[in-house]
Structures are given as structure tokens and as C-alpha cells.
Design brief:
The chain is of the alpha/beta class. It has helices at 11-23, 26-33, 37-51, 67-90, 105-122, 176-181, 209-215, 232-240, 250-258, 286-308; strands at 56-59, 62-65, 99-103, 128-132, 148-154, 162-174, 195-199, 225-229, 245-249, 263-264, 269-280. It contains ten helices and eleven strands. The longest helix has 24 residues, at 67-90. 27% of the residues are buried. GO terms for molecular function: DNA-binding transcription factor activity; sequence-specific DNA binding.
Length: 309
């Protein structure tokens, strides 16, 4: 049923009426609301004319509510309270909307999950919905399926809502037990005779053993003994268990090298074709998405600073 606007007084007159009744004088209401006493008096008179009844009895000592004014004040207070509370709920900073994240399995496993408790401590009211997708195209920036997404893409990708997280840095890693068993694996000239671990059916633009060899100025050869796996998580896990030498991104294995689970056989090599990004859709909830992206960028910057020291 449509609301008859002609029967509803102005919001400003109701606010002034409530303040005048609560404080007892027009001057006090004017001071609280930063308006002139004349403006308050005019609004109250307009409200009384609109309602066709007296709300106040004007006395030398101040204002006294009429019986109808007392009844109306209760209704106005309840209405203004409900309106204020419901309006507050609309503020994304007070009640932020859930944030839909679409991320790759590696970003989830190696970076986000280990740090996510920090985000929850900092933003306990932001609920995260996380889905895994390793194949979304970077150009799909208006999707309704996510608010913030993590991508591995070409450095030539240009979009104002892209945020560069990690430049691509590759290195070779193996387990301590593997190195003890095969100390000769430090010799990169014989790397192709060692048990290697790689990705199966990776996209053509991804770095791989062949491109790593080119970056390292080493002649590429078909590995004599390679286990191929469908994702990088499995590759790193296999390396941890002594199955071979893995080609890994530095941010995947930093913590594992630090805790001794893996050993770096080579220093990281800077690959200048691709990088890892966060991106935000145009329709994303602004407050929640900005909080998440700012948190990620700040934490990544801190980690880079620690790595330099």
C-alpha cells in the first residue's frame, strides 16, 4: 500500500520537536542542533499547523507539552530511534557486506590461509566467502561472481583496479633428505639427470623448466626423470617428501625454507613476463574490498621489508 506523503511532516520538524520537548526551551534545542531559536520556533509552529493541534504550552519558564504533545512525543521518539538504528545498519563500515573472494589454490594454501586469522582479528565484522578458481580470465572485471580476485597474469595487464602483489621469482628447492642423498644436485649442469617435479598441462604463458633454463643461461634438455602433477601445491608437497627437485615461486616456499622443510638450491631468478595480482570488480562492496586489499598489500609490503633485512 503506498504511503500518503501528505500526512507525514518533515523530518527536520520532528527532530526539532523532540529536542525542544527533551530540553524544555527553544533556545536549548537551537544550540544543540546548531540553528537559530527563530528557525526552531518557525518549524514548531509549522508542525503544529500541519497537525492542526498545539504541542506546547509556552510559559516564561520554558515549554510544557500538551496532552496530545506528550502522546505524539512518544511516537516521534520511537520513530526517530528506529530510523536512526536502521540507517546505521545501512552503513557498510558498521555492517559490512560479505566479501566474495575468488582465489587460486596456491594463494589460498601458501599465503592467505596462514595469515587469515590476522585479518579476522583486525576486521571481525567482515565475513569472507572464498571460492577457488585457477582459470578465470583477468579481463573479466565486471563479474557478479566475486568482489576481489587473485590472478597470475602478464605484466602487460592494465586495469585501474589491479594491485600488483608478487613479481615472479622462481627458484629450485628440494628437501634436506633429498640433498643428503644426492649432493650432486647442486651442479646445475647435471640438473636434467636429476629427479624433477613439474606441472602437468600448465598454460603456455606460465614459467616452466624450459623458460627457467633460458633465464638461467642453461641449455634445456628433456628431463630423464620427471614427475608431473596437476597443481603447484602437490609439486611443493612432493619436494618436501624427498621426491625430487621442484621449480617453485619464492612466495610459495619462503616459510618452508625458513622452517627447514625445504632447501633452496638456487637463488630466486626474476622473471619479467608475469606477476601475481589482486583485482576488484566495479560492483564490489567498497568498504569490505578496500579493507581486504589494504590488509593484503600492507602485509606483503611488511614481508618484503623483512626479507631485505
Amino acid at each position: 500500500m503506498p504511503i500518503n506523503n501528505r500526512t507525514i511532516p518533515s523530518l527536520s520538524s520532528l527532530i526539532l520537536f523532540e529536542a525542544s520537548a527533551r530540553l524544555g526551551t527553544l533556545t536549548s534545542a537551537a544550540n544543540e542542533l546548531c540553528v537559530s531559536p527563530t528557525a526552531v520556533s518557525k518549524q514548531i509552529k509549522q508542525l503544529e499547523n500541519f497537525l492542526n493541534t498545539k504541542l506546547f504550552i509556552r510559559k516564561k519558564t520554558g515549554l510544557e507539552l500538551t496532552k496530545k504533545g506528550q502522546i505524539y512525543l512518544e511516537t516521534v521518539r520511537q520513530t526517530l530511534t528506529v530510523l536512526a538504528e536502521e540507517s546505521k545498519k545501512m552503513d557498510d563500515k558498521v555492517s559490512p557486506l560479505p566479501l566474495n573472494l575468488e582465489i587460486g589454490a596456491c594463494f589460498s594454501h601458501f599465503w592467505l590461509i596462514p595469515h587469515l586469522d590476522n585479518f579476522r582479528d583486525k576486521y571481525p565484522d567482515i565475513m569472507l566467502n572464498i571460492s577457488i578458481n585457477n582459470e578465470r580470465n583477468m579481463s573479466e572485471v565486471n563479474s557478479d561472481e566475486y568482489d576481489v580476485a587473485f590472478y597470475y597474469s602478464s605484466l602487460k595487464t592494465s586495469y585501474k583496479n589491479n594491485f600488483l602483489l608478487f613479481n615472479e621469482r622462481m627458484l629450485l628447492v628440494c628437501s634436506p633428505s633429498f640433498l643428503e642423498k644426492r649432493p650432486e644436485c647442486h651442479n646445475l649442469e647435471s640438473i636434467w639427470q636429476q629427479p624433477l617435479l613439474g606441472l602437468k598441462d600448465a598454460p603456455d604463458f606460465w614459467e616452466n623448466w624450459k623458460t627457467w633454463a633460458a633465464h638461467s643461461a642453461i641449455d634445456y634438455q628433456e628431463p630423464l626423470n620427471e614427475i608431473q602433477m596437476e597443481d603447484q601445491i602437490a609439486v611443493v608437497h612432493a619436494a618436501q617428501n624427498g621426491l625430487g627437485i621442484a621449480l617453485a615461486w619464492d612466495w610459495h616456499v619462503e616459510d618452508l625454507i625458513a622452517d627447514g622443510s625445504l632447501i633452496a638450491l638456487t637463488p630466486p631468478i626474476e622473471c619479467k613476463n608475469n606477476a601475481f595480482f589482486l583485482t576488484r570488480t566495479k560492483n564490489a562492496n567498497q568498504y569490505s574490498s578496500e579493507c581486504f586489499i589494504d590488509w593484503v598489500m600492507e602485509l606483503v609490503a611488511d614481508q618484503k621489508q623483512v626479507a631485505k633485512t
